């Protein structure tokens, strides 16, 4: 890396650490922070008129490691920033640099991020920038595209089953966020539709694999769990509604009707 021997060595250290069997994510984060300063000083963080292909290639690889690192440490804003920076390399410098084997995996991850945040309009905008054949053939792109279709259909079971078909382990992070959103929606509907549910039925409905997860979720939602009956009793704000005095209202309406007859 022409920006200095120290920066070049730090890049090699970062790459070796992150690709090791058990990477130290704290060390990787420290290396990335220093390298981002170096890239900024070399005007490679968001390059303008840069033409040195070697510098651009190394900078792109650093940003790609940063994007993956962000998913591993569950830092969504950091992932979003890295993707925004990488888009410049993937579009503006596509003719100057060789294709990256990480572009479509990261593009698919970003699509999944937008789905998990319910940013559907941005999801479709991002799809428009992808070559049509990739939408049909590329495994990393097809996966989030199919997920969006399942969501539109309300086929939540298919969304859940997609966890077993992820094209890369990092995809599970955003799918789990998406499932959390789906569970909240199902829970809200269940509170309105049922007064109670057996624990096993609730587990199936909410896509939980064991009863402990259901119990913890019930506590978070403020539901009452009866271990002896193995049942969940839903308690919502609507439970405290004021009873309408139907008899008094009917009596008053009849009195008004009689008075109207007397007037006529």
TrEMBL record:
- The entry's keywords: Proteasome
Q: Which Gene3D superfamilies match?
A: 1.25.40.990
Q: Name one GO biological process term.
A: proteasome-mediated ubiquitin-dependent protein catabolic process
Q: Does the keyword Nucleus apply?
A: no
The UniProt entry, under PROSITE patterns, shows:
PCI
Q: Which domain of life is it from?
A: Eukaryota
Family membership noted in the UniProt record: Belongs to the proteasome subunit S14 family.
Q: What is this protein called?
A: COP9 signalosome
Top-down, what is the taxonomic lineage of the species of origin?
Answer: Eukaryota, Fungi, Fungi incertae sedis, Mucoromycota, Glomeromycotina
